[in-house]
Design a protein that fits this description.
Elements: E1 3-9, E2 12-17, E3 23-27, H1 41-62, E4 72-81, E5 84-95, H2 101-112, H3 115-119, E6 125-132
Parallel strand pairs: 5-6
Antiparallel strand pairs: 1-2, 2-3, 4-5
Helix pairs in contact: 1-2
Pfam families: OsmC
Protein name: OsmC family protein
Length: about 130
């Protein structure tokens, strides 16, 4: 088992990662009856895409001596109103260093093929930009 989730009322859930014990609270967004006091489940889904991209680049880049420390990713989640679902995730990846063309190609292909990107439904549009240096 990966996690344990408990509904704690007022449109909030508490999720515990069983291996580490860390806890995440989610709240329904303000546009869907929530208080917006924490990540919503769809926020976490969109955020996971950027986290997975950076983590996968770091893991696979290690063997190629590609250091991405200090890299960031700004996420914008766009919701479809009916049916309510994530329509688009915009990822703006920024890398503080310059890389060779070959390294950039590796970074971009790795990001676009990370496990979360490959797991999302094809209808979820993924708009990804890369900025270097």
């Amino acid at each position: 088992m990966t996690s344990a989730i408990k509904y704690i009322g007022q449109l909030r859930c508490e999720s515990q990662h069983l291996q580490s014990g860390s806890i995440v609270i989610t709240d329904a967004p303000t546009d869907n009856h929530g208080q917006g006091a924490a990540f919503s489940p769809t926020d976490l889904c969109a955020t996971s895409l950027g986290q997975c991209m950076l983590t996968t680049i770091a893991i696979l880049g290690k063997g190629k001596n590609i250091d991405i420390e200090g890299a960031t990713c700004d996420i914008t989640k766009v919701m479809n109103p009916a049916p309510r679902k994530i329509a688009e995730i915009i990822c703006d990846l920024k890398f503080p260093m310059n890389y060779s063309d070959e390294e950039k190609q590796f970074i971009e292909q790795t990001a676009l093929n990370c496990p979360v990107a490959l797991s999302l439904h094809p209808d979820v549009k993924k708009t990804v930009s890369f900025t270097y240096g």
